[in-house]
Design goal:
The chain is α+β, with helices and mostly antiparallel strands. The protein has 10 helices and 9 strands. About 45% of the residues lie in helices and about 10% in strands. The strands form 4 sheets. A 3-stranded antiparallel beta sheet has the order 5-6-7. The longest helix has 28 residues. It is elongated. The model has no long low-confidence stretch (mean pLDDT about 80).
C-alpha cells in the first residue's frame, strides 16, 4: 500500500481545481514573509508550491529577504562557507542556483523613503513643541520646527525597514511616558523637539546596537560627527545591515564644522560652540562644560544641562527596558 496515496490524491485534486479555475480566471498567489519562517519550513513551502503549481498558469509572487533566506538555505543543505574566502558571495551563489528551480524573475525592492510628514512618528511628536531661539542680533539661531523634524526623521530612517521603525517609535513612546511618571521635576510645556530627537537616537543605541552607551561626538576631517557604539564587526554579519545604515544616515545629517581659534600663546585649537540647529543637537551628546564670555552660549549650555537631567532618567529607564532585547 502506498502510504502517500492520500497526499498524492489531495495534490491531484488541488491541481485539477486550479487548472479548471485558470481556464476562467487569472490566478495570483502571494506568499509573504517566507524568510521569517524556520529554514526547513521555508524550503518545504517552496518545494510544495512547485509541485502543486508546476505547469498551471498561476502567477506566484514570493516576498522574501533574500539575504536572510540565502543563509537559511545554505544551513539546511549543510553548506558551510565560513572558513572560505568571501563566504557571503558563496552563500548567495548557492542560493541563486537553488532558487532558479522556483523563481523566474527577481525584482529587488528598496525599503523606500519616508514621506515628508510626521505620520511616521505615530503621534509621539504631539507631546513635544517646536523650538526656535534667536541669537544676539535677533536672527534665528536654532530652528527646530516641524520641517526640521520631518527632515531629520526621513534622513535617519532612510533605508530602514518599516517594522524596525515602528519598534523604535513604540519604545520611545513607552519610555517617555514612564520617565514623565518619575519624580524628575520637569515642565512638560518645555519639552522641545530636541528632546524627542535625543530620545530617538538614544533608543537606537539600546534597541538596535544593544549598547547602554549613548552616541558620542567625535572629531574627524575638521568636522564634528555623531557615532553609534558597537562592540562587534558589523561588516561580517548580514543581520546587522541596519547598523551600517543608521551610522551612515546619522553621519550624513548631523555633521558640524569645527570652530578653530588661537589662544594667547598662538596655539591652534578648536571649540565646540552652538551656532546653528545641528550643533545645538550635537551638544546634547557632549560632556563638555563650556565657560564662555558669550552670555548666549552660556545660556544655551545651561538649558541643555537642565534637559539632560530628564534625559538621564530616560536613558536609565531605556536601559532597563532594552536590557534583555
Amino acid at each position: 500500500m502506498d502510504s502517500f496515496f492520500t497526499l498524492k490524491s489531495g495534490i491531484k485534486e488541488i491541481r485539477n481545481q486550479l487548472t479548471e479555475l485558470s481556464g476562467e480566471h487569472k490566478i495570483l498567489l502571494i506568499v509573504d514573509e517566507l524568510d521569517r519562517c524556520l529554514p526547513e519550513y521555508a524550503i518545504k513551502v517552496l518545494e510544495r508550491l512547485h509541485h502543486v503549481c508546476n505547469g498551471i498558469p498561476i502567477i506566484q509572487i514570493i516576498t522574501i529577504n533574500k539575504k536572510i533566506l540565502a543563509s537559511n538555505i545554505a544551513k539546511v543543505f549543510g553548506k558551510d562557507y565560513q572558513n572560505e574566502d568571501h563566504p557571503d558571495i558563496l552563500i548567495n551563489l548557492f542560493c541563486e542556483s537553488y532558487l532558479q528551480k522556483f523563481i523566474d524573475i527577481i525584482i529587488p525592492l528598496p525599503n523606500g523613503k519616508i514621506d515628508r510628514s510626521l505620520d511616521v512618528l505615530q503621534g509621539i511628536e504631539k507631546g513635544f513643541t517646536p523650538c526656535i531661539r534667536p541669537n544676539n542680533i535677533g536672527q534665528e539661531l536654532i530652528k527646530l520646527d516641524d520641517v526640521f523634524l520631518t527632515t531629520f526623521i526621513s534622513s535617519l530612517m532612510d533605508g530602514i525597514e518599516k517594522r524596525l521603525q515602528e519598534k523604535i517609535f513604540n519604545q520611545v513612546t513607552l519610555c517617555h511616558k514612564l520617565t514623565i511618571q518619575t519624580d524628575i521635576k520637569y515642565n512638560n510645556e518645555q519639552m522641545s523637539y530636541a528632546i524627542l530627537i535625543y530620545e530617538i537616537i538614544s533608543c537606537i543605541c539600546r534597541y538596535v546596537y544593544h549598547s547602554n552607551k549613548t552616541c558620542c561626538v567625535t572629531t574627524l576631517d575638521d568636522v564634528y560627527t555623531l557615532d553609534f557604539y558597537t562592540g562587534i564587526d558589523i561588516s561580517v554579519i548580514p543581520e546587522t545591515t541596519e547598523y551600517v545604515k543608521f551610522q551612515n544616515n546619522i553621519h550624513e545629517f548631523l555633521t558640524y564644522p569645527i570652530n578653530y581659534f588661537e589662544d594667547n600663546e598662538g596655539r591652534h585649537r578648536y571649540a565646540f560652540e552652538i551656532h546653528d540647529t545641528k550643533s545645538f543637537l550635537l551638544a546634547f551628546f557632549t560632556k563638555q562644560e563650556v565657560q564662555s564670555y558669550d552670555p548666549l552660549q552660556n545660556g544655551l549650555w545651561r538649558w541643555i544641562e537642565e534637559d539632560k537631567i530628564f534625559l538621564n532618567k530616560y536613558d536609565e529607564i531605556l536601559n532597563m527596558l532594552c536590557s534583555n532585547i
